[in-house]
Amino acid sequence: MVAAIKMIPDTLGQLENLEILGLERNCLEFFNPALCTIEGLKRLGLSGNQITSLPREVENLISLEQLLLDDNEFEFVPIQVFWLINLRELAMSGNHLTAIQAEIGLLKELRILGLNNNRLTVLPPEISQLKHLKILGLQNNLLEAMPADIAELFELQEVYAGSNKLSEIPEGLCWCSNLQILSLPKNSLERLPVEFENLKKLTMLILSENEFLYVPAAFCALEELEILHLDGNSLISIPEELGALKKMQHLTLNNNRFRDFPQAVCNMVSLVTLDLSNNVIISIPGEISQLTNLLFFNMKKNEVGVFPVELCSLIKLQMLDISDNMLKDLPEEVGLMACLEDLNLSNNHFFEFPKIVCSIPSLQKLDFSQQRGTKVPSLPDEIEFSSVWYLNVSHNTLRTLPRTLNAMRCLTDLIASHNEISSLPDTLCYMKRLQVLHLDNNHLTTLPVDFDQLKGLRDLRLHNNPLRTPPMDVCVSGVLQPIGCFIRRALEREDLLITRMFEAMKPALSKNELRYLMKKLKFPNEKIVELEQMYHGKDRLPDRVMAAMLFWKESYSEKATSDELIRVLHIVGYEQLSKQLWNMKIMSQRLRL
Length: 593
Description:
The structure is a single chain. The protein has helices spanning about 470-475, 480-505, 510-520, 525-535, 540-555, 560-570, 575-590; strands spanning about 20, 45, 65-70, 90, 110-115, 135, 160, 180-185, 205, 225-230, 250, 275, 295-300, 320, 340-345, 365, 390, 415, 435-440, 460. It is about 15% helix and about 10% strand. It is of the alpha/beta class. The longest helix has 26 residues, at about 480-505. The protein has a 20-stranded parallel beta sheet, with no helix packed on it.
């Protein structure tokens, strides 16, 4: 790591031919006046230091065109700056300025003035004397008004004045006919001047988080507009004429009060991004199919009940967020959305997991978390055909995961927390690409034998499960090696214990008791007959008991545990034998400890 510079040596002033000096992001508290002898210096970068003032000699830098003083500790603009008559860019954002001196008008060649993130409450009228100014940054101040004579800045191209206290836009701004970008978010604007339509060259207009109740008609004349942000207002509709803005590419109308889908939007055929999230829209019109260039569509947090078939015709669509709505199913045509990569269906009202999403050819991310939606009890086997690398099925009522999951060759992130999963398929252990596995807040008591084969895992979460094999204190670290070792040793102990239990049962059961137990264990009748014929007679009864219990263990596999055997013997009324086996289990646990 390079140490930060705290002081500048005098010898640096001997670089007579130096034109660019960058000292940004250091720990300078003052600027060495010895450097002010470099009369050919054109760019001086001092941003990101702790400077509070500049030396008087700065006025000698007569060739300086760029002075960058962002993110320092200035409380006023050093008076020497105003004598730098060739200055084209002055950057003083991120300081503690409360006012700008009238001498600002002396910087006749200034093109860029950055005053963002200060404490300015007013601008001097002399700022309108900067006839060549092209970019003006005033964001995040305390301004209540723009300069009345701002119309004098007829070369102005970009104005950034968001996060102030502006309640109106001066008519003069509307005569800055070269303006291309106007950013005014987070103010208190309710209306725009009628003359706003004069800004014919405007390509970007940001009016987010203001107090507009309707879209001004003047917008409809801004034919060059490509980006329009009106999110965070109180709009309930937009004029039909707005649909004539054929160059519109990015439109954000989220966090308003739309109840009906704004029909004019469907005529903006160049739209690439459309955000209508956080409204109360109840349906999407069929005319949505006209937006053939749409790539990103956000309809999150509305009240849409039907996924329109016409939406599936947007074959260029890459991202669709229609979470937190009222959807119950998807049309089969969803599988035709060839470019769709990111689909969010969370918090809806599906009766079952929509199988059709498994056939979306380019899908990479699928979010189906239902924390505030209708929970589904299972995933279909068809999930194996999905190409997703990220799958979120948390907050459902899944009791297990499909065995076909391991066929998902691209899957790296599986989020299945907050379900009712009590067991995992052994096939999960062979998903070599899996890197993230969240199974927290489920009903898991054990993990598959080869769980430690998930060598690629880097994020494993198993907390809030009633795990016994292995216990939670082994799993809490998420490290696979001790988990795998514990599981294998536990299985060896369990296998030895259950074999000893079978031995204890051999002399304890009569012929009729064994037959009754086999029926309760749901042995096929033909198997019962086979065992009785193979081990016929009283002398062979112990062998029959052992053969029957080995068949039970083989048939029921993971479910054939010592706990299950003790439980069944208790249910059928063999209390003495059940208690005997229980004592054997307790003793084996004590020995292990």
